[in-house]
Amino acid sequence: MESLYLLIPLSLVLIGLLVWILNWSIKSGQFDDLDGPGEAILMDDDAPRPKEVSKHSQK
Fold first, then answer.
1. Of the candidates 38, 24, 51, 14, which has an alpha carbon nearest to the alpha carbon of residue 6?
2. What is the rounded distance in angstroms from the CA atom of residue 8 to the CA atom of residue 14?
3. Cα–Cα distance, 33 to 4 (Å, whole number)
4. Cβ(31)–Cβ(25) under 8 Å?
5. Rounded distance, CA 30 to CA 39, Å?
6. How would residue 16 be classed by pLDDT, with cut points 50, 70 and 90?
7. How far apart are CA 4 and CA 53, in angstroms?
8. Is 55 helix (H, G, I), strand (E, B) or coil?
9. Closest CA to 34 of 46, 26, 22
10. What is the Cα–Cα distance from 13 to 7, expressed in whole angstroms?
11. Residue 40: how many CB atoms within 10 A of its CB?
12. Looking at residue 51, what is its pLDDT?
């Protein structure tokens, strides 16, 4: 029973911290673009890179 005097305030502090972190992340724009990163994976660059020729092989 005595442990509840410690655990209840500790859990309320933890819940308050989690609510503050969630509120901060929403206000800072963390959830603005949910589809962009998923679609960025699908749009790869199909153009081949130009081959770099070393000075040694140009002789």
1. 14
2. 10
3. 42
4. yes
5. 17
6. very high
7. 72
8. coil
9. 26
10. 10
11. 9
12. 74
